[in-house]
Design goal:
heterodimer, A: alpha+beta, 2 domains, six-stranded mixed β-barrel, 13 helices, B: alpha/beta, Rossmann fold, four-stranded antiparallel β-sheet, 10 strands, 36% helix, membrane (chain B), cell membrane (chain B)
């Protein structure tokens, strides 16, 4: 009996391919949206997780102000050289400490120019991040102390500005400072957050402070713990030290934050989840609209086929059999919509993940859920029309023109 | 005395209520034996179609009782009435009422689908039924590819494919020309004489009614006359 209903449903759908397709378009769009969003989200998460695993979990970022969901960033005072020195000298178990003064500037070489990120830091930055140079050398201590106009350039800056020219020893104009290129960074590629890590210029901290930002502020202090030292302990030590140095009394909360990568990931995941939730709600509305579309067409179909229903009831079809026939039809329709939606969603996600160069991670559970949900929509929105068909009076139905 | 196949005891049927109440049947007593060939006649609004609907278990009496093979149908649920239709009754309609865009053999198979027969078995019986109405070789044609007479043959094949006890025909020749009407009536006569199927037919054409053994005439919801064919009056009309 079920096989018969299925055959009948497929035949009815095939007879009106255009109408059937338009009927399920809402479901197709809804399912495709859910599948694409979740797949892209999964890919991004996988990428970020991989990046963080690569960096290692022993990194800490000390920043002024508080960050994260529900906490507004406050205007807290920046760090200075003495804070960096204090951390380096008073906290145990550190591998590297690097101050960061970030800015952006136009860099010019020859006829080429480019707006890029400038980081004023020390050689500790390279060891903290575990970055290596593809050519040249890191900053010398004398260069750092004297604030010499020297720079290390990222791969993107090198290719865009220098092309085939060997940049070592050349003079690169950063803002209005002319500095000597002393090294090039090995290619890092895109970060999990989607920024180009190679589009950067490193300069001694003092050079940036004096000649680019014009202040002695330090935006972020990068700390890397030694292997085998718990980051939580280092984190606690730094927090205590900074509270003391910044004169925060016990009753006040920190006006700075010390985060490790896991915490940064959590912050990011929170934002991603919120976004996914909102988009999911939009997709759910689309599925609801799709379901109403199916109900509408099924009601039209029941009216059109009143005579047919009358014949079936007269020659011995039970109400439950007529109900089943129309329910199967709406479920087949919505499953068809779901299947098309899944394929479309995966195709969209594949395109998007390739474009963003994040991994294409298909979650089988979301595919199954989307498919099952389409079936559910078919049942829910097909029930009213099917019941109407089953409850038709055969005499009236046979008289229907 | 054997139980009649079909018996009406004081059957009334009212539609609507109060001022707008219409009495389609008024206290009708009727009994039809197994193997009979009965024609029901009467002007429109006389209650003949209502009587047919009640005989076909598509409708229930407002008062009185309809017995099918001795069973009081008022005691049956809607589902049981459907099962009774499915197993005991065959329907032929004026407008043929075949499923459009569906081949002849699939139309004939339809009642067997609801009986839950296997596809192979169904096809075999449907083809046999088509052969009985003289439509071998037309199994794959859809209704729009068949003439009116052929369509009505398909409808008859669909009605008899389940080997029903009673064949109910509502104006079976209403949409057909004279020659085709006669062919259809010959077919119905054969089904009645050879297969022993009880045939009950509504018609308003006397020459079609003349094929029956018994003619019941309804007027204003009552039986006005109930005559066997051997009556002289009908003999002269035939």
């Amino acid at each position: 009996m079920l096989a018969e209903s299925l055959k009948l449903a497929l035949r009815t759908i095939r007879r009106n391919p255009m109408r059937s397709f338009l009927t399920v378009l809402g479901i197709v769009i809804g399912v495709a949206a859910v599948i694409a969003l979740v797949t892209i989200g999964n890919g991004t998460t996988a990428r970020v997780t991989a990046d963080i695993a690569k960096l290692g979990s022993n990194m800490l970022f000390v920043r002024p102000g508080q960050f994260g969901p529900g906490r507004a960033s406050t205007t807290a005072k920046s760090f200075n050289d003495r804070d960096v020195a204090a951390i380096r000298d008073q906290v145990n178990g550190l591998r590297a400490v690097a101050p960061m003064a970030q800015s952006s500037a136009t860099v010019i070489f020859g006829g080429e120019s480019r707006s890029t990120g400038v980081v004023g830091t020390t050689s500790g930055y390279l060891s903290a991040l575990d970055w290596s140079l593809s050519s040249g050398r890191a900053f010398l201590e004398t260069e750092e102390r004297g604030g010499r106009a020297a720079c290390i350039i990222g791969e993107t800056v090198r290719t865009k500005l220098f092309g085939a020219t060997d940049p070592l020893g050349r003079a690169l104009r950063v803002g209005n400072v002319s500095c000597e290129v002393i090294g090039t960074l090995a290619k890092k590629g895109q970060s999990g957050m989607g920024t180009d890590q190679d589009d950067t210029v490193l300069m001694p901290l003092r050079t940036v402070q004096r000649r680019i930002t014009g202040s002695s502020d330090i935006g972020t202090i990068l700390v890397s713990a030694q292997d085998g030292v718990a980051t939580s302990k280092v984190q606690g030590d730094i927090e205590r030290l900074m509270r003391e140095r910044r004169g925060i009394v016990a009753s006040k909360t920190d006006d700075f934050s010390v985060n490790d990568m896991t915490q940064m990931l959590e912050t990011m995941a929170g934002t991603t989840q919120l976004l996914t939730g909102l988009l999911g709600a939009v997709a759910a509305v689309s599925l609801l609209v799709g379901g109403i579309g199916i109900m509408n067409i099924m009601l039209v179909s029941v009216t059109e086929r009143t005579r047919e229903i009358g014949i079936r009831l007269a020659i011995g079809a039970l109400e439950s059999q007529v109900l089943a026939q129309f329910l199967v039809e709406s479920v087949v329709l919505s499953l068809f919509g779901g299947a098309v939606g899944i394929l479309l969603g995966l195709a969209l996600a594949y395109g998007a993940t390739t474009a963003l160069s994040v991994p294409f991670v298909v979650s089988p559970s979301i595919v199954v859920i989307a498919f099952a949900f389409s079936a559910l929509i078919g049942v829910i929105f097909g029930y009213v029309p099917a019941r109407r068909a089953a409850h038709l009076d055969p005499i009236e139905a046979l008289r229907h023109e | 005395m054997t139980t009649p196949e079909i018996a009406f005891k004081h059957v009334s049927k009212r539609y609507g209520s109060g001022e707008t109440e219409v009495r389609a049947l008024a206290d009708v007593d009727l009994s039809i034996d197994r193997g009979a060939f009965v024609a029901i006649m009467g002007p429109s609004g006389s209650g003949k179609s209502t009587a047919m609907n009640i005989v076909g278990c598509l409708d229930r009496p407002s008062d009185g009782e309809y017995f099918f093979e001795g069973i009081a149908t008022s005691t049956l649920s809607r589902t049981q009435l459907t099962l009774l239709r499915r197993h005991k009754l065959g329907f032929v309609f004026q407008g043929f009422n075949l499923l459009p865009r569906t081949s002849a053999v699939e139309n004939v198979e339809l009642p067997l689908v609801y009986r839950g027969l296997e596809a192979g078995d169904r096809r075999q019986r449907a083809l046999a039924a088509l052969a009985r109405v003289g439509l071998e070789g037309r199994a794959g044609h859809t209704p729009s590819e068949l003439s009116g007479g052929q369509q009505q043959r398909v409808a008859i094949a669909r009605a008899i494919v389940t080997d029903p006890a009673v064949l109910l025909a509502d104006e079976p020749t209403g949409n057909l020309d004279t020659r085709t009407s006669l062919e259809i009536m010959q077919l119905m006569t054969t089904l009645n004489r050879v297969q022993g199927i009880t045939v009950i037919m509504v018609t308003h054409e006397p020459d079609i009614a003349a094929f029956a053994d018994r003619i019941i005439r309804f007027v204003d919801g009552r039986i006005e006359s109930d005559r066997l064919k051997s009556d002289g009056a009908l003999e002269t009309m035939a």
